[in-house]
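Throughout our pipeline, every protein is held as a single compact record rather than as scattered files. The record that follows is passed on verbatim for readers who wish to inspect the format:
___
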Amino acid sequence: MNNDSPDDIHTDPTPTRPLDIVQSTSPTSADLGDAEPFSETWTQAIKVLDEELIGGPRRLTPRDLAKQLGVSAVSARKIWRALGFPNIKADEKVFTQQDAAAMATIVELVRKDVLNEETAISVARSIGQMTDRMVVWQIEALVEDKMSAENLSDPVARREVVRMLPSVIESLEDVVTFSYRRQLNSALQRLTVRVEAGLAASEEGRDGTEDDAPLPLARAVGFADMVSYTALSRTMSERTLAQMVQRFEQTCAEIIAEGGGHLVKTVGDEVLFNAETPEAGADIALALSQALSEDQVLPSARVSVVWGRVLSRLGDIYGPTVNLAARLTALADPGTVLVDQLTSSVLADDERYILIPQPPQSVRGFGPIHPSMLLRGAGDGIEVD
């Protein structure tokens, strides 16, 4: 993995041996004492939790780690950074045998020609970035729960979360493993098995000259953007703002999931989603607009949906379809859904939708476009619990 030696993992002569991954078990309340389960000081709790999470004593320097993996120090450092961790001083004992075992797994995928080095680093980076966001989300959710349920200040709530984490780690880890396999299966269907049908459908109404024609996936791409978020956020306390953002994301995530779509990402006051058919995208967009307009806490939203082709990379989607959907969102009035001309033509003969042409708009990067407002026609659309 050295830049000067692209085949470093294959050619390094240092032999490697199978490594035993240290299995960890979380202490129960009985282990910590029934009468006072969290009687240790916060510093002691941190130390106990640290040892629990890293899976053993820190005995390996970067040089030791590289030697055990049978790769150069540069290669080992690239894997470590890809997983989302900072560089370590050459003589600092930071790594455990569990670290070495996990990184050896990545090395072996390359050594056995299952993955090339670039792909292995990309996969490692996906794991690092996603788990980083996941654990931050989980810790903040637990802190918020402590603050609300026990009326604690933020610093006290954080100390309490440190003390209670050992009792939930195994449960969370089990759910993460379950979710990974389920999500992998779902993505396998979405990104491979059902692709051809979507591409065939995306040709409807096209003449083959569109900018997105070469892109590999057909998707309905939509945005929902909270109205006046910036102005509202300036008047809110940190806690109230956090509750509003959490409510917005939770509402959107439930509707998108219920409609069979995929929440690509949330950026503050905006969510980006996609769906496999224009109809599913339209139903999700309409349900989002309605739910946010009727919510007594959240502001209404501007929503758009565009049917076209996209490139899926790094857990995100790219291409003119995404850009056009973003531009349409900015043009939509609060509480409405806008679609472009192609999406309108695809949905026009479906009695479940009403399309009202809007005045032409000049959109940066696209020139004149002819948007339509999307309304619910026959049927009830997505039913949200």
In short: The chain has 15 helices and ten strands. The longest strand covers residues 301-313.
